[in-house]
Amino acid sequence: MTPMLDIVFILLIFFIVTATFLQEEGLNMQPPPQSPETPPDPAPVILVDVNDQGRVFVNQQQTDPERVLAAVSRFRAENPRSAVLIAPQYQADHGIVVLIWDDMQANGIPVSVQPAERVQQ
Amino acid sequence: MARRASRVNTEEEEIELNMTPMLDVVFILLIFFIVTSVFVKEPGVDVTRPDAVTTDRERPSILIAVTAADEVWINRRVYDINGVRGAVEQLIEENPRAEAMIQGDAAASSGLVFEVQEILGDMGVPVNISTRNN
Fold it and tell me: Regarding the domain delimited by B51-133, which CATH topology (the fold level of the hierarchy) does it fall under?
């Protein structure tokens, strides 16, 4: 029985070693929820455009990517219920979108992302 | 004297460890590790993921990389955006409960990352955007 036990032990060690419980850090970036009919009182939207050159516009005003939060907070001061919609163009850097998303999330501002070509003006 | 010596001898012969319960335990451990083992499908390319603070810990088993040159890497191969669905379908067949994670390079096109995310979402695969925690 000893040789069999050896084999079983080797298999066991192999599976223990390969069972790396991979843990990754991640965000769940979502487009705005789709509903057939718009709710009666939709939250006002603060549109954050990111264009192909990586320039950021908060409600059409050009802003530094790092300072989107300040600009958004100004709009939210007028209307605390408003939500942020990030509308990046196709070539916009993924990093900028994640940066803005993360900034909003960290400050508890409702945020969603939708490609610019699908946002109805 | 001679009798005593012979008694010691027979006792030594009889000492043999019963391995069966231990073998049972080892088998159960082995089966546990075989069943729980998930082989992560690595994309096979390194990307510079963006930093973020508000992250969740996930345990994905399919990793999809989108590089700065807008190539989509799945399981060590480059795919066209049209080939992503087929490639993921194959991996899902192997492990139907797989969760996916997109490792987008900070300089990748956000549109491409979104398209990949949407394809996976359509297929009902839970998907997250991979980041680096700082």
Answer: Nucleotidyltransferase; domain 5 (3.30.420)
